Batch of 2 targets.
Target 1
Amino acid sequence: MTQSGSNPAETPLHTIDLIRKKRDGGSLEQREIAFMVAGAATGSIPLEQLSAWLMAAWLRGLTLDETRALTLAMRDSGEKFSPVRLGKVAVDKHSTGGVGDKTSFLVAPMAAACGLAVPMISGRALGHTGGTLDKLEAIPGYRTALTLTEFEAVLARCGASIVSQTPALVPADRVLYALRDRTGTVESPGLICASILSKKLAAGLDALVLDVKTGSGAFLRKQEDGEYLAALMVATAEAAGTRTVALVTDMDQPLGYAAGNWIEIVESLELLRGERNPESEDLRELSLVLAGWMIHLGGKATTPEAGRQLAEAALEDGSALSIFFKMIEAQGGDVSVLDEMDISPARMGGSTRFFQPGATDALLAWESGFISSMDTTKIGWAVQRLGAGREKAGEPVDPHAGILFHTRRGAHVEQGQPIATLYATTPAMLAELIALLKEAITIGRILPQTLPLVSRIFTRETAENYLENAVR
Ligand code: URA
């Protein structure tokens, strides 16, 4: 109560005051954050004011309390999913966004094959990063927009389901995510944390494994920023009651050899079929580590290493592949296009019965030397601008657009050797994007230092310690 006897908790709020407070470096209280979130979800706050507030939050940063309040208010902004009737432990994995990151297509069926339920609510392309839903929708007929009843039915039948948010699930993130994509406010630890976790917590998960990317293709490029985000997300999700770990992983080059929509499905299928090739080894390894943690947190293995072994067995005995196919069919996808004969030529840069890109060209090494660095954000933009992403929210994407990489960072190339094959919607796009790729890739004389695929793992305890000592 104030001296005058009025209760501050009942004082009416005004959006402009909250924008100015954040702009001037203040911290918003829980009810002020809840007010902004409700305004985003219901449309009562106009987009220009939400944009201004997002920019203020991006520039000033959010405190731990603000981040927690934002996450919970967003989680509670709409309907929620309850996996309880499935009678299984519900576990998921989520990445902060990368280029060529297709681990979802591997970890979801591997964890489901080990007896867990994997209710995966995923996103679309954001900024320079690809979207799991856009990739899955490259499979003709695959429906990502299921109702929660349909979602539960697919989970009961297959153990895994990958869907989009329903209009009513975390509606605040729908609005804020699309605005952030268009207002240059994606790369903020607090906003990323709240965006990802609100959706994950609304799915009623028992446990969650986070893959926090760092390096040239991550939203937060610096190792220390990635670590802060990882610790922030673990502490926030644990405080909300979900067992969570975060792995800080390398995004200094695309993960695996394919970046795009359909071609990422092709690469994932090869691994699910038990095939191995050197360009996909990082993808295979990271998927196994992530799935190992999911299986461990889900109580099916005493250690993450034992979980990894179970995941690998599911890959090798074909059980993960069969769950993937079942899930595609259950969500209306045409599995005939996933026929072995039909996907293999795409791997080699050729077209197939289904895969008919509008235009194609190769990037050839302009000199001999080592691939010494890859600006993976630039590569991600090139993939998006070839047609795999959208300029405006709601636009269709080209399922066939993308880039196949024929070599990895650290590889030696001879002048004239193909480095990558580009697939574009139209031939007019190719020249600009070849030039962008050339800018993104450096060929040098010195073998570059290789970075560890997983540089750090945060559990609840290590995350809390880290945040206590973090100076932000
Ligand atoms: N993925 C999300 O869902 N939200 C973000 O802010 C970043 C990646």
Note: The chain has a mean pLDDT of 93.
Target 2
Amino acid sequence: MTQTQEQTVPTGDTPFVPIEKIVSLCKRRGFVYPNSEIYGGVSGIYDFGPLGVELRNNIRRFWWWSMVQTNDNVVGIEGSIITHPRVWEASGHVENFVDRLVDCKNCKRRFRYDHLPKENVRLNTCPVCGGELTEPRRFNLMMETYIGVLEGERMKTYLRGEASQNIYLDYDNVLKSSRVAIPFGICQIGKAFRNEVTPGNFLFRQREFEQWDLQFFVHPSEMQQWFDYWKERRFAWYQSIITHKDRLRFRAHGPDELAHYAKQAFDIEYQTILGWQEWEGIHWRQDWDLSRHSEYSGHDLSYTDPETKERYLPWIVETSGGVDRTFLNLLIDAYEEEPPSGKDKEGRTVLHLSPMLAPVKVAVLPLQKNKEELVTTAKELHHKLRRLMVCQYDDVANIGRRYRRQDEIGTPFCVTIDFTTLEDQTVTIRERDSMSQIRLHMNHVPAYLLERVRWDYSV
Ligand code: ATP
């Protein structure tokens, strides 16, 4: 992302949360840390802390559940990060996976050429200070590595620049080893590596990140219908996990952006303080990938229809998104600073994360720490619940502060053990967003919570 885009503030009534607030929350509460921080960090590389890893796992699992587990015609794989180097020649990455970079001779800022506003390209000026720009230089984004130990026998290859190539490589094996027939899809979630020339905006543009891909193989005559189907389905999926539905849109690629084989392509974009940014791409890949791998490997990847015996190279609909951008966009979407109100006199920061994705599902809180019976009962319930879902026990500070601590990390439910519990075995369940409370018998708490946090998405 360029400096120009960083300065774009969308118009409209709704305030957008500054990225710095998300960065600060993530560090403070253990979602995300800068990688190698004690050595000064590495630009565009991050680690995920105790809450971050829970949220990430939930995001991944939900995608997998809704894309693989609940579709009869979709299967999953997990390919390796390192592949034969010819893969990246066939895919075009060695030759064409480049960004063009320009520097401002005056303020020394650096921009991706394709992200410059048209006017600045025309005038060759810096969008920040108006200074003159250098000639664009080409940089390949692939990260190199070597296989083997002996000098002279080492083979240069690459950390994968996109995860999807494994799917084309395994397509034939999947066909032969699974009971799939066209139309069918293969999904994968996996790390990708890019020497981004302008990493930045926190998790938005990293050098090591994670992608999720569906490659859906179809008969050419059915390409349009499946393209439309997955385009709409992926949009509905993203809509189902955000609160601000109006911040999601499609952007059609213009003729100058389309690959030569693509009839159309769309980005699903989300609007933040950085402007409208790509979240996932829906691509018309035709038979480009399978034909290139057939050509470069010498292995015929065409398909024979089991009934008609027609032989053809399948066409592909690709939906390719990012776990990290989902992580970031969800936090931005969920973040709210609520002013003091009748319900909460001090005001609070709250993450309105969907309960099924929230890193911690429930916190069990004894009303007072110094009353042994309250503590014992609370710990018993905590031990029971933590076998079913991520559950925290907290007895430090007054109950209001403990609620706010949980609100800030998006915990949808807090269960409070109070003196009435000791009399009739009922507890208070407080709901994060409305702050409303109900009383429930302790024995019913597990079933109640399980129902409220389960995967929920229908197509
Ligand atoms: P951009 O135009 O933003 O560079 P792209 O078009 O190169 O993205 P794709 O190659 O289509 O992106 O990758 C698919 C998805 O992977 C993107 O929609 C995004 O969610 C994610 N992604 C791509 N590059 C990065 C990155 N550097 N850091 C984090 N996520 C990324």
Note: Residues 82 and 243 are 38 Å apart (CA to CA).
